[in-house]
Write a structure and sequence with these properties.
The complex is a heterotrimer of chains A (about 325), B (about 290) and C (about 400). Chain A is mostly helical and about 325 residues long. Chain A contains 14 helices and two strands. Chain A has a domain of about 210 residues. The longest helix of chain A is centred in the last third of the chain and has 27 residues. Chain A is globular. The C terminus of chain A is likely disordered. Chain B has one domain: ABC transporter involved in vitamin B12 uptake, BtuC (Orthogonal Bundle), CATH 1.10.3470. By secondary structure, chain B is mainly α. The mean pLDDT of chain B is about 90. Helices cover about 45% and strands about 15% of the residues of chain C. In chain C, strand 8, helix 8 and strand 9 form a beta-alpha-beta unit. The termini of chain C are far apart. Classes of the chains: A mainly alpha (about 325), B mainly alpha (about 290), C alpha/beta (about 400). At the A-B interface, helix 5, helix 11 and helix 13 of A face helix 3, helix 4, helix 9 and helix 11 of B.
Chain lengths: ~325, ~290, ~400
């Protein structure tokens, strides 16, 4: 087994026993959220990193998933687990629609990024105005911590669920680095016109990519809703989540398998440390911003890029 | 249900609001056109300029319109230095990195403002704040009328600068063909910094024109950025004329949308128009291919 | 160098001597004997983000209470144990708020006070419930907060349901006193939970006092300008406008209505976010005659006035409602600690549930908690008159008579 493979296996073993080692609910919560953010980041990474389709509105899939399962659960008595499947489907559908509309119109680069932002805004305003979301009042899920309600008394189960999601997302990303589909996406990322000239069905590839990405983010939405038990339009469709998704991927290394995980660990760890460091209004976030800039300045290819340059390995196809 | 009077008044209100959007958008589109980056720090820098106007008013009793040259000059210098010392230096020329750096900057600026000025919302009460001009059914505050005229004047001045001056020509050259401009001896880094500076100077102008009617708090700049992005894309990214026309179109759309659909739902009109334009004519009203 | 050392020794000796003397005077155990362990109180507020000002004010009020209690000798029934603040910033985000609750639990807090935004209150109270930590909500209007059956949640101030009822009652009284001038209204509210909930209740209650609701206008946070809202209101010609917004939009709307010379009998807000001393001081012409139904201190209470003076002594801090609501929340906890004689979470929760505390300086009687909601809580109806904020209703706490209808624009 290769060195990387052994390392990964070791990390997996550690990950499985980690919550028992930590001995603190706060710490378990932090790692759970790191894993969750890494999962969401990977969803962005599929589209933005691997296929080069940077999106600023990825929260639209997350929010749709959150609302789908929550509405079914709260207003129609569905089990959240069944709702989860629907949420994944809803995320995929929205990904498909946005993909088809945007790519058919030939939108690329910044234009694509901004149209996704616009879609997220439209969804947010609609969510605030329609009856079945209860608009600005939001949807409250009754606290009843039993596994069949997708609520757990012991936070360790959310951890393992998040871990499972991350492993699934890593598998998808890994598949992309090995499959023909992934190679097509890489070709599109490097030079879309050349890819088309090579005979790649660019529209189909990009749309499928968005669908997968949307499905993943939709899955994340349900997880979040069930953990925090409250959804409202700004939680579901607020721009901060979009920024977080792209930030962890880009910092960690866009287009790499482990980029989002590394980025999430770094940024969230940084967030916890800076928040604990000062009680003065604003100071902790100033430090966070400075460190962010420093990271970007000295690690222009993301953190993974640093390792790649050091070890000389050429893993995922990335220029 | 709505009479023609009211609709006309809505259009007038829209034009007044649009004037501010134009100024914010012009800066953004210039920065995009030349540097090819989306400046995430735009909202934070607007907020900073607005604080500048506030403090000048409070300490020196300086009227915001009188303060226009000072605030614009200060904003230009700040933007120029920000590019030269931080953005340009740390981005290593990669576009995605500039995005992240401007994001980091916005976090720093927002929280530095919070730290220095506290989260309290500040307003200025100019003596003519209560005066209005009645145009049909519209009661337009004098401050907004001045803002409208000033915005047009500034755009005209900027347009002339871009067309006639050497620096303006250099900027347009770099925007069109970066490598070529470098080859003919234009100091591209300087042009980048100047363009960024001008973009921020436009924010300085917007701040002066906004403060008599609006307010400032550490998070108040962001309200205008999303709509500025919309304007820029609508008008065509990098197109100066596009930002001008786009700003007014958005202002009127927002206004009429609010009157016809209700204030909140009306906001959807903007995003929908935005999406429609992008799907039908992706390069925006006046944009070239990109 | 040696002289400095000697000076240092002398001063330290002096300090120890002085300290022992002081301890003797205060009747506390001499230094060296076991000291009562500090009781940790978690203070959870959004001190960064878009409601940073409100969060900072809340934190300040809570800290003032802690300092005051400690200076007066701490919790007497627990051998003078002092209160210690464990500060947490929610950054206006649900997940950060919940993470902070986990941290506070691990720090061993006996109770939590927080956290301004209803959505985050909902999530953080739920987290605290897992550990049985009593959570006193200082600001957070939603009625959902106290109707979920969580036994650890306590709210001193009334929810917006009760506030709307009281506000409508006050409006009816004021309207009646002016010969029922107001017959129609337009409601303007912000689009999140607070505004939407309040507006919904208002639309139901206003017709019952013969005020026809012509339109309900919903707006986003933030809103860039209210010119068209003013236009619409002017074309509808209601007698009054009723507002429920956060601070920035409240001020902008009020200013716009004033600028556009919209003639109204009155501007009435329920839990108006921007109605405070700063508004009245900075924009006196706009604020004049505006009325608000909100949480307010009893103006005739000398302790309230003393605290107001103390807070405003700094010159930059205003005595806003966040300050005294959080202050009272902490003092409520202190009272419960005294009665429970212990920081044990279950005992503290029971003491809170049975509390009949009247040490607040609010315009209402002793506390009485039903399902965590203080049924004894009341707001007051205020009006900005001549650059001051007066309580105009109910009469027993009033400091001035209401001016209604307000004069028309010339």
């Amino acid at each position: 087994m290769s060195r990387v493979g052994l390392l990964a296996l070791g990390a997996l073993a550690v990950a499985c026993v980690l919550p028992h080692l930590l001995g603190s609910n706060y710490a378990v919560n932090v790692v759970t959220m790191i894993l969750f953010t890494a999962f969401l980041g990977q969803s962005w990474n599929i589209a933005g990193g691997f296929a080069g389709q940077t999106s600023f509105g990825h929260v639209v899939f997350f929010g749709t998933g959150a609302y789908a399962s929550t509405i079914l659960h709260v207003s129609h008595g569905w089990s959240p687990w069944a709702g989860w499947i629907v949420a994944i489907g809803a995320g995929a559908l929205v990904g498909l629609v946005i993909g088809v509309l945007s790519f058919r119109a030939g939108l690329r680069g910044s234009y694509f990024a901004l149209i996704t932002l616009a879609f997220a805004e439209v969804f947010r305003i609609v969510a605030n105005s329609v009856e079945f979301t209860r608009g600005g009042l939001g949807l409250l899920i009754r606290a009843d911590p039993r596994p069949e309600n997708f609520q757990f008394r012991n936070p360790i189960w959310f951890y393992y669920l998040a871990l499972a999601l991350v492993l699934a997302s890593l598998a998808i990303a890994f598949w992309l680095t090995r499959s023909r589909f992934g190679a097509q996406l890489a070709a599109i990322r490097e030079n879309e016109d050349a890819a088309r000239a090579l005979g790649i069905d660019v529209l189909r590839a990009k749309t499928v990519c968005m669908t997968i990405s949307g499905a993943m983010a939709g899955a994340g939405g349900t997880f979040y809703a069930q953990k925090y038990l409250y959804v409202d339009p700004s939680i579901a469709y607020g721009v901060e989540k979009s920024v977080e998704m792209l930030l962890v991927s880009m910092i960690g290394g866009a287009g790499t398998v482990f980029g989002p995980l590394v980025g999430a660990a770094m940024l969230m760890g940084l967030g916890e440390i800076t928040r604990a460091s000062s009680n003065t209004q604003g100071l902790s976030l100033i430090v966070y911003g400075v460190i962010l800039i420093v990271i970007v300045a000295y690690l222009p290819d993301g953190v993974i890029g640093l390792f790649r340059r050091r070890s000389g390995e050429r893993g995922a196809p990335r220029a | 249900m709505l009479s023609f009077d009211i609709l006309l008044a809505g259009v007038i209100n829209g034009l007044a609001a649009g004037a501010i959007y134009v100024l914010v958008a012009v800066g953004l589109t210039l920065i995009y056109g030349v540097l090819h980056i989306i400046n995430f720090a735009h909202g934070s820098l607007l907020m900073l300029a607005m604080y500048g106007v506030y403090f000048l008013f409070r300490s020196a009793k300086l009227d915001p319109y009188m303060a226009l040259p000072i605030v614009m000059a200060g904003s230009f210098v700040f933007g120029y230095l920000l590019y030269r010392l931080v953005i340009g230096r740390f981005s290593h020329g990669k576009d995605e990195n500039i995005l992240l750096i401007t994001l980091g900057l916005s976090i720093i600026i927002d929280n530095a403002a919070l730290f220095l000025f506290t989260g309290d919302t500040q307003t200025i009460d100019v003596p003519y704040a209560g005066e209005i001009v009645a145009i049909g059914a519209a009661f337009l505050p004098v401050a907004k009328l001045i803002a409208f005229v000033a915005a047009l004047a500034l755009c005209a001045a900027l347009g002339l600068f871009m067309q006639r001056s050497d620096l303006g020509r250099a900027i347009r050259a770099v925007a069109k063909e970066r490598q070529g401009a470098r080859l003919v001896g234009i100091d591209v880094e300087n042009v980048f910094a100047v363009s960024y500076g001008i973009g921020i100077a436009c924010l300085g102008a917007a701040a002066c024109l906004l403060m008599p009617s609006f307010y400032v708090s550490p998070s108040s700049g962001h309200a205008f950025v999303l709509i500025a992005f919309t304007t820029v894309v609508l008008g065509g990214m990098g197109s100066f004329l596009g930002a001008l026309v786009g700003g007014f179109v958005i202002g009127i759309t927002e206004s009429l949308g609010g009157l016809l659909l209700g204030e909140q739902l009306g906001q959807i009109g903007i995003s929908l128009i935005f999406i429609l334009i992008l799907l039908v004519r992706p390069t925006g009203l006046f944009g070239g291919g990109r | 160098m040696s002289t400095e050392k000697r000076r240092l020794h002398a001063s330290r000796r002096g300090f120890v001597a002085g300290g022992t003397a002081l301890a003797g005077v205060l009747g506390m155990p001499a230094i060296g004997a076991a000291q009562a362990r500090a009781i940790k109180i978690g203070l959870l507020h959004p001190v960064t983000g878009f409601v940073a000002y409100n969060g900072a004010q809340s934190r300040l009020g809570a800290q003032l209470a802690i300092d005051e209690i400690n200076a007066a000798g701490g919790i007497k029934s627990m051998a003078g144990a002092k209160l210690e603040a464990v500060l947490g910033d929610t950054q206006a985000k649900v997940e950060i708020g919940v993470a902070e609750v986990e941290k506070m639990n691990e720090a061993g807090v006996a109770a939590i006070v927080g956290c301004f935004q209803s959505a985050i209150v909902l999530a953080t109270t739920q987290s605290a419930a897992k550990y049985g930590i009593p959570y006193v909500v200082d600001v957070g209007a939603s009625d959902l907060i106290t109707s979920r059956g969580l036994t650890n949640v306590f709210r001193l101030k009334p929810g917006f349901g009760k506030c709307v009822d009281a506000a409508v009652l006050a409006l009816d009284g004021i309207n009646g006193g002016a010969g029922k001038v107001a017959k129609s209204a337009v409601i303007v509210h912000e689009s999140s939970e607070f505004g939407t909930g309040t507006a919904k209740l208002l639309s139901e209650r206003l017709p019952k006092i013969n005020i026809d609701v012509k339109e309900v206008i919903k707006h986003d946070n933030p809103t860039r300008n209210f010119d068209n809202v003013a236009l619409r209101i002017r074309s509808l010609q209601p007698d009054i406008v009723v507002m429920s917004n956060y601070q920035n939009e409240y001020v902008l709307l009020a200013r716009t209505l004033h600028q556009q010379k919209v003639n109204l009998a009155g501007l009435f807000s329920v839990l108006g976010g921007g109605f405070n001393f700063k508004f009245v001081k900075d924009l006196p012409d706009v604020a004049e005659y505006m009325m608000d139904h909100n949480h307010w201190f009893a103006p005739t209470n000398p302790r309230a006035q003393a605290m107001k003076k103390q807070v405003e002594a700094s010159g930059t801090t205003l005595f806003t409602f966040e300050i005294y609501l959080s202050y009272n929340a902490v003092k409520l906890i202190a009272d419960a600690l005294e009665r429970a004689g212990s920081a044990d979470k279950e005992k503290l929760t029971a003491a809170l549930a049975s509390s009949t505390w009247s040490g607040h300086f609010m315009p209402y009687g002793p506390t009485k908690f039903v399902n965590g909601q203080n049924e004894g809580g009341e707001g007051a109806t205020l009006q900005a008159l001549k650059g001051e904020i007066e309580v105009v209703y109910p009469a027993q706490f009033a400091s001035a008579k209401p001016v209604f209808p307000k004069p028309k624009f010339g």
